[in-house]
Structures are given as structure tokens and as C-alpha cells.
Amino acid sequence: xxxxxxxxxxxxxxxxxxxxxxxxxxxxxxxxxxxxxxxxxxxxxxxxxxxxxxxxxxxxxxxxxxxxxxxxxxxxxxxxxxxxxxxxxxxxxxxxxxxxxxxxxxxxxxxxxxxxxxxxxxxxxxxxxxxxxxxxxxxxxxxxxxxxxxxxxxxxxxxxxxxxxxxxxxxxxxxxxxxxxxxxxxxxxxxxxxxxxxxxxxxxxxxxxxxxxxxxxxxxxxxxxxxxxxxxxxxxxxxxxxxxxxxxxxxxxxxxxxxxxxxxxxxxxxxxxxxxxxxxxxxxxxxxxxxxxxxxxxxxxxxxxxxxxxxxxxxxxxxxxxxxxxxxxxxxxxxxxxxxxxxxxxxxxxxxxxxxxxxxxxxxxxxxx
Length: 369
Ligand SMILES: NC(=O)c1ccc[n+]([C@@H]2O[C@H](COP(=O)([O-])OP(=O)(O)OC[C@H]3O[C@@H](n4cnc5c(N)ncnc54)[C@H](O)[C@@H]3O)[C@@H](O)[C@H]2O)c1
Hints:
- By secondary structure, the protein is α/β, with parallel strands linked by helices.
- It has two domains: about 5-190, Rossmann fold; about 255-369, Dehydroquinate synthase-like, alpha domain.
- About 45% of the residues lie in helices and about 20% in strands.
- Helix 6 runs parallel beside helix 9 (about 225-245), helix 7 crosses helix 9 and helix 7 packs parallel to helix 11 (about 275-290).
- It is globular and about 60 Å long.
């Protein structure tokens, strides 16, 4: 499995141009002090800062406490709250706990939140910031590959309900995203591979050269400088799409590539599959469907199957498309009436959205695989 060796490398800053809500994503092997300075500068002069930390990350990574301490030297009234690890922080109960804790600790409307953790932490932090006292500022330090390239960029925040994932939420843009790839040192291999699925997606929908880079690297350890470039390229894809469609009314749908089938497979697995693993399978299904509909270059399916497998991701989608999975596609949030807005990739770096009737989609998918 190709892995990373995050160490020192150059600092990259990517602007997210959203008018008054603009901010910067910094990909920086910056070290705690520089990260804290960058966050403090972006937050302006908050009256206090609450640092929300994924509790498992807090146990595993030696980088967390120095960062919290550095934040405390650059921001007023810094207190740390450890969140339930991973997805378990994405509940309304956990949000209520965080908001109660903020109130008990006297954080007012001028205060800010800083989230340190994966996508679950950034979703929790952003949503708490969106609703506490009707909205306060926040920044995130993403610590998983998926959070760096996807979850922390774009301002979608939220939590899960028993009825489904991400059903309650708000758009609330951060003031800064500060990603140090060195945090990935402690990330389990499986989680790293899952993040790579979203990197491949970014390449497929908008950056053919990123796919070339991944193919040149997959199978060997990825040098730190290459990993930083890969993260940067994937972030740029997401930033470009978000900047063109902040509220997901049009272009942003292309980010859903691989997700119509992927979400259904993920849910049908009882969430035993990681999101990125399900997206890998969903991308294979979407490419196969594109080939069957005469939209996608046939060679691309072969190429991407090989790449995703070499990245340590599952590709055996045919055996996973049971009736339960196909039925779940009908519940896709992105569905419009009886049609699913399905994203297809004709060639590397290009995505199109087609409305496909649900009744046609199921047999076409089964025939395509
Ligand atoms: N808002 C968005 O636009 C958006 C986009 C994509 C995904 N998401 C959300 O992101 C979440 C998935 O994010 P994720 O994959 O980062 O998962 P996660 O936040 O659940 O983290 C995965 C696991 O890794 C641990 N962890 C985090 N950083 C670590 C590190 N550096 N070292 C060791 N362990 C570490 C966590 O404790 C957790 O167990 C989902 O809830 C998904 O809905 C949101």
C-alpha cells in the first residue's frame, strides 16, 4: 500500500473566493506555532477560542497538545473540549453538549471555535459554530486525508440522524483551514486509502494530470513533497467547484461523482465500509455505466480499476449491487422527482450530469457491470 512520509516541505495557500466569506486553505508543514499564528490571524480578535479535538486523535497524535498550547499563546481564553471520536460526534446530542459547554464556559458571540480532527470533527465544529448564539466564527485543522481534500473545504456542516447521515446541517464557511500533512503520520492505512478515493474523484472530474501523478506513485511510498502536491491539487478542484456554486444549486453536483451508488453501498454495509471505500466502488459503477451508455472512454474504466486497487481500495462492485443497494439509490438526497442526477465522466478531468430515471438506472447498472 502506498503511503506517505510527511515531513518538511513548502507552504501552499489556496484562496476560496466567496466574497465576504472568502478564506484561505493553507497546506503547511508549519508546526504548531505557525499554524496557531495563521489561525489567530484569520480569526481576527475573538473574545475567546474553544478548541474541539477528536478524542482518538488526541490520544494517538503527539501533535495535538503542542497545537492547543500554541493556540493558547495566540488567542484569548483558550479551552479544550474533547469530542467523541470520529462519526460519533455527529449527533444532535453531541452538538447540544458542545453548545452547553460553550455557554457554561462563558463563550459569547465574539468567540470562535477551532476544530482539530477529521471530517466528522470539522462537520461538528462547523455546525456548532453555525448555530451557537446564531452563528460564531470557526477554523479547522483537518487531520485525515479525506478532511484535508474534501470535508474541511466548502462550508457544508452538519450531523446525522437515525434516519440517515448528514440530514441536519447548515452552510457555514470557516475563517481558515490549516492542514499540516504531518498529522497524517498517525492515520491508519485504511483511513488514508479512503481519503485517496476522494483524490481520485477530484482527478477524474477536473484534473487529468492529478491522475497521472497518482498512477506514477501508486504502489510505492509517496514522498512528502508529492503528497503535498496531491493534496493541493485535490483541494484546488474542490475550491473551484465550491467557488462556482457555494450552495450546491448546480455545478457542485459534479462532486457527487461516485456517490449515488457509493452512498447506497455504504449504507447497505451498515457503515462497515468507510465512505471512501464505498466511493471507490461507486466510481467504478459510474464509469461502467458511462461506458455502457457510450459516454465514457472504455479504457478509463480499466485504468481507474487498476489505480484504485493499487491504492488499496475495493473495486469489486458487481458483487455488492444487491437489491438492497439498488433500492437505497432511490433515497439519494440529490434525487429530483423520479430521476437521479447521475454524474458521468466522459474522459479524465471532465464531468457531466445526466438525469437518469430510477427505473432505467437499476437495470442499466446491472447490465454494465
Ligand atoms: N462537509 C463536507 O463537505 C464533507 C465532505 C466529505 C465528508 N464529510 C464528512 O466527513 C466525515 C468523514 O471524515 P473522515 O474520513 O475524516 O472521518 P473521521 O473524522 O470520522 O475520522 C476517521 C477516524 O480517524 C481518526 N483520526 C482522525 N485524524 C487522525 C489522525 N491524524 N491520526 C489517527 N487517527 C485519526 C478519528 O478518530 C476517526 O476514528 C463523515 O462524517 C462525512 O460525512 C463531510
